[in-house]
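Worked example

This section walks through a single chain of length 510. The input is the sequence exactly as stored; nothing has been trimmed or padded.
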Amino acid sequence: MTDTENDIPKTTFAALGLGPKILQSIEEAGYDTPTPIQAKAIPQVLLGGDVTGIAQTGTGKTAAFVLPMIHRLERGRARARMPRTLILAPTRELAAQVAENFEKYGKNLKLEMALLIGGVSFKEQEQKLMRGVDVLIATPGRLIDQFERGKILLTGVEILVIDEADRMLDMGFIPDIEKICALLPPRRQTLLFSATMPPEINKLAQRFQKDPMKIEVARQAQTAETITQYVVKLSRNDDKAKRTALRRIIEARDVKNGIVFCNRKRNVDIVVKSLNKHGFDAAAIHGDLPQAYRTQTLDRFRDGDLKLLVASDVAARGLDVPAVSHVFNYAPPPKDEDYVHRIGRTGRAGREGESVTIVTPEDEKSWEGVLKLIDQEVKDLEIPGLAEEIENLPEDTGGRGRGRGRGRSNSGRDSDGRSGGRSRGGRSRSRNESVEDTSDKKSEAPAKAKTKDDTKPESKPKPSRGNQDESKPKSGRRSGSKGKSRKDDLQPAADGVRGFGNDVPDFLKR
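Given that input, the structure is written out below as tokens.
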């Protein structure tokens, strides 16, 4: 069954069947009217059936399952190591955001929650699990790790939520989810929520649900109407041109705060250095950074102490900062669907926002895929003088990494700024040439060293492996004046007798 936004009448949270303590928390949070996905999903979740919810990002999907779960958990009590509900999230940031929702809406109820994510100490979470938790929010890897340690029993789970379902299933989590589902009781409620649900992913999702009610309140992959989308097309592929364009775009727009998305983690670091070098307030966030640093950076961004957050797609899902004014794509994303999630970080909760995507000649095919997916026109953004500045830029010889990571630029260099090579695997021609040059210099080194050291005392050469110093024979290596091995020394002489000859030691003559 599929419902559209037009089929959902306007209602209130009180009419959805939620308890008074939850309604009080909602009112204290400043909300009075549910979003379309909340209005339709909450009653269905309260009934206990499986639900697949599809809605564009920023429409309140998290609250659509958090609120009815809290209502159902109000009755009952948690047991040691046996969580009553389990929520799986693809990233640490998304899991942390779900936890924040539970703290906000469940503050008037005595519910225990544990958050299992990478980069956080086990000790505190283990203590909570031993006392018993009503809600367990986890990334798949950390959950399996704790289960294999014997810290968790999943036989008491009543509700399973797979948040950002398409991302979970598409990021290689299928084996982990299958393993986790096998540990859960067969009689459970399973909820899947996502902004997109491609057909191939939908088939896989059906394996984890029984006759789910599908609630679709917006066309899949539809971007929010509150976002004004722009594209800036460049004539060159090299990263120096892209970094220049990014800075000019930020300078030209009224940016209160913004997120810059890069396709590769190394590009994130390079872009941050470039922005900081030119006076912009920017910081990085990606999967290789420590969790404590990532949390601190996100907090600074939320609090308004940081203007630009440069991120990999780890921040594209679940980053709930309501007042982001701009999103910048350093390149179209590798997966077309991720474009919807990226730009969905702005224009949230009815606010207006802008997105700008930088497209080079080698990005054209990817950009066409994005346009086909969202099925709408994106305006060209004209930055005065940018085209001329890009054309006059010197050749980018030191760039590291491209957003797309494939193909070569018009300057004849690949995405790493190396001539004639690929960005991944193998060495480029110029890299090999430099190695060969080094080898040639090494062969000439002895002659140069001799000239340099004419006035110095001659040093003894270090014995080689094949010509050991006779005074220090080593086991298994050549020794003796003629370099014979020990094995050869033990061979009998031609006449069958072996002696010292003229070299008899003095102590044998006494």
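What to look for: The first helix runs from residue 20 to 28.
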